[in-house]
Amino acid sequence: MDQGGQSLKGQFLMAMPGLNDPNFYQSVTCLSEHNARGAMGIVINRIHPEINAKMIFDELQISCVAGSERIPVHIGGPVHMNEIFVLHAAPFGWEGGMMITEEVGLSNSRDILEAIAAGYPPQEYIIALGCAGWGPGQLEGEIRSNSWITGPYSATIAFQTGVERRWEEAMKGIGIDPALLSDTAGRA
Prior knowledge:
This protein is α+β, with helices and mostly antiparallel strands. The protein has a single domain (11-178), classed as VC0467-like (3-Layer(aba) Sandwich), CATH 3.40.1740.10. The chain is built from five helices and ten strands. It has helices at residues 53-59, 110-117, 138-144, 155-160, 166-173; strands at 11-15, 28-35, 38-43, 47-52, 72-75, 79-88, 98-99, 105-107, 125-134, 148-152. β7 (98-99) and β8 (105-107) form a beta hairpin. The protein starts with 10 loop residues before the first strand and ends in a 15-residue tail after the last helix. 35% of the residues are buried.
């Protein structure tokens, strides 16, 4: 929960320039959960350099349509790196799926992967290996120490903007010119 006790679920979490952790440098994470027990999200701007969707379908013995090797797989974060998550737009109602907001959900069940493999995916989606996670109060502390800034979720940024431009566009979406950011925290 943020300082006012508000959940940040459904928001973007953007890494500030001073966050040098290679897992999160200039990352944008869609927070799928945020409560007193911690937070969880999917990094939306890191493509796995060696894995594509066809490889995942083959591993799971799911038949797939031609071209599935062109579906990228994202590095969703450094936690649960062997688990598959699908951040997606409508339709919803997949087994094991959860709504993040009215316009985006998160699923990690076989049925959504089978639909993608068969050529009947959600309107927009990201397949990710792993997720980002924070324990109770951890994310709030990192926000206070100027590691992160939050902003509203944008389907355009999450699914349509080029991966290499998502961090910059998410920052611009909250009125920040990334070129002017400092990596030093201050107190007023």
